[in-house]
Amino acid sequence: MTASTNAVAPRSAAGPSLAKLVSHIPAERRWRRQADALIVIGRQLELMAQEQGRTAHISLGTLRFSLFRMHQGRISQIVPHCHSITVYGEADVAPPEIPGVTFVPVPHGAPMSQEWFLVIDSPSFWGALIAQASPDPAGGATRRYLFEGVLTADERVVSRASLLLSLAGGHAVGSAGRDAASNRAHWARVAYALATHSESQRLDLLGCISDLPEMQSLLAMPAQSLNQIAPEAIDVLRRHCGSLGEILYRVEGDMLTPMVWSCPQRPPEQSVSSGIIGQALLQNQLVLTPLQPDDPEHALLSEANSVAAIPLIVRGLPWGVLLVGQEEYDPEESPTMIATVGVATLLEQMIDADPSAMMSPPELPARPASPSFGAAAAPPSPADHPMPGFPPTGPSQPPPSFPPTGPSHLPPGFPPTGPSQPPHAMPSRPPVPPEPHASPAPPAGSATSFGMPAWMRTATRPQPAGGALPTAPSATPALHPTEDQSLRSWPVLQKRLVGALVAYDQQAAEQVWSETCAIYKPEQICNELLTPVQIAIGDGWHRGEVSVAAEHFSSRFVQSKLLNLLNASTDQPGGPLAIIACAQGELHEIGAIMISLFLRWGGFRVIYLGQNVPNSTIEEMVQQLSPQMLGLSAATVEGAHGLAAASQLITQMPPPRPFFMYGGLAFRDRDDLRARVQNGYYYQGDIRQIAQVLAEKMRSA
Helices 69-78 and 35-50 meet at what angle, rounded to 10? Predict the structure, then answer.
């Protein structure tokens, strides 16, 4: 919680412009509204931020502090539920003393003095309302404002807005470990609340969610029955979400009956305890899995390479399943899945509003209690839902045979995080045995209140697509044999961590991490544990010995630990300023985080920007911050192309230009990609030595 404070001076006299961040959004997605529309929209966003378990950072722009009085009551109520709240505006009056709220004055005439904005940033919900004010000459004698703006769920816009606001206010704001599916589910709740608001038609609130066309299209239908809404939902999935086949199943007794579908023939009914859709319903979880030619679902969704099965839970009871085909072979990498989660969440609310759509649920068999975790608990209420975690998918894989990666095998530049697309030849998946599961009990209070869909709020332990929890291997081949085989030696720690990660055993992985942190320095942990383990698992993925899900699980674990180390480290006062980021189009950031760490440990002041930094912001950022060094990372070919374009922009900047360096997996063994980068220092090898070389270059410059 941010401590109570008086207004603090901004770091820049001119200040940033949030409206400039969304200048690329087409005119047809912009809208003009009066202030009361912005207040209604802002209230729905604030309610959603309030439910994020004190993880949400809120930034509010009010034009002037005197106008904050229209927000003061709401903001005072949500302060205890948020991580931080910062208010920006022209200091025409002294701001009120509200514990937990920081006020940042904006200079008169600065861009932000004419901008009304609300930026919310948390791991599972983020969004931005950004609008510019202009006097309305048709307002008569009373001067009033109209606001031209956008409402967006774009993570890039939110991250860039958070960065600019943190620079203006002199504080750090940001979220790590984002959950895109959770965010889309939250936005479905916001969209439904706006569409059903008592002032929705007068203020045309539905016209403000053009950033979510699939939801806007579905909510634009007049109030109709589910029999009319369901076919539109299937059409929306195909038009806006990129799905390759869609079937909506409804529970009828102990069977799942297709209600609407896009395949040529009517899909057969099936038992609630069989197949992928039965698994999703019984386990009350999203199921993601690749399709094999002999799968029954492949015959129904012949164009798809993977499927997502999403249970629909209405008023705490199972209603049906939405099955959607996806183009990607790796179902977790599919943007279709994220958009479909939003549509499914919206359908739950629309079904709940249609009394004719409700019916008695089936008698689902109870699941025996687990000896480790006990009986399945009822879903918590929306106010205290846990952070969602998607179950790992794909078959359980044996631990790989890893090549030697001991201290003598140092990592190259940015460590790999796995290819952006899985191979076409997927490993065979064993049949999914039906596993009964207790149906969720209705949560307390209204089931339509803000929060996660029921399947994302389940308190049961996530399960893989195969139905049974993977068990840790009894023995994992040593990564690199040494004479010291004690429990705390690097080879043994590496072996233990690999075994835990390929078995999705978070608790065992955390135990290895705790033991390592107790006896080794962070620099050693990065070089001798995290990087070798990540490389070994990546190599195992290439050989088909590690599943896609296990590789992703490992990458997220390593990334979270690196971010913890980065957040715990401090800049060296007076050191050269280095800005590190992932190139435009690049989402893999493990290597960029690691180089940021070693530069900071090497005496630099480091600003780490994260994923997918647009080239359009680089020149302005360099002019504002005047860094001595700018480093970009690219692990994919798409990111390498964005990096090459950025190098051209940097070359054209007027002096003094920052020292430009780059690296990443995309450039390893690709001379053609390196040749496209202009005037950049390409580095690879031991990151410790790279940081030392760069420090020497800065000292001699």
Answer: 10
